[in-house]
Amino acid sequence: MTRTYYMTFERDDETEVTVEYSISDYDYGVSSGPDELCYPPEGGEVEIVKVFSDTDPDIKITDAEDTKWSQKICEKHVFDDYDDYDDWRDEA
């Protein structure tokens, strides 16, 4: 199942745009404990699906904007699936 999300950014010319994106699940990995149970973090790949504004339904973006915004999305996205996991773990 693919879900799309939205985040607002400001371009260099100070126009505000909305970015529609998808992001893969993120696994934080395990970095402590026995070596056989440790593994690195993985996932969290961002795909920008569409960029639009109130006045333009389909905006073309530069590679630099794609890179910068994908990085910001990865930093700020809230992986709500892990909230469910934490609730389940707390009940156990």
* Radius of gyration over C-alpha positions, nearest whole angstrom: 17 Å
Distance between the termini: 27 Å
Low-confidence stretches: 82-92
| Mean pLDDT rating | 86
State the domain count.
Answer: 1
CATH fold name: GMP Synthetase, Chain A, domain 3
Which series of helices and strands comes N to C? EEEEEHH
Query: What is the spatial order of strands in the main beta sheet?
Result: 1-2-5
Question: Can you give keywords for this protein?
Answer:
27% helix; 2 helices; disordered C terminus; 3-stranded antiparallel sheet; two-stranded antiparallel sheet; GMP Synthetase, Chain A, domain 3
Structural write-up:
It is built from two helices and five strands; from the N terminus they run βββββαα. With 92 residues, the protein is α+β, with helices and mostly antiparallel strands. The chain has a single domain (5-91), classed as GMP Synthetase, Chain A, domain 3 (2-Layer Sandwich), CATH 3.30.300. It has a three-stranded antiparallel sheet, covered by helices on one side. Strand 1 (5-10) and strand 2 (16-23) form a beta hairpin. Mean pLDDT is 86; it is low at 82-92.
What is the gist of this entry?
By secondary structure, this protein is an alpha+beta fold.
Architecture blueprint of SSEs:
Blueprint: E1 5-10, E2 16-23, E3 26-27, E4 42-43, E5 46-52, H1 63-76, H2 81-91
Antiparallel strand pairs: 1-2, 2-5, 3-4
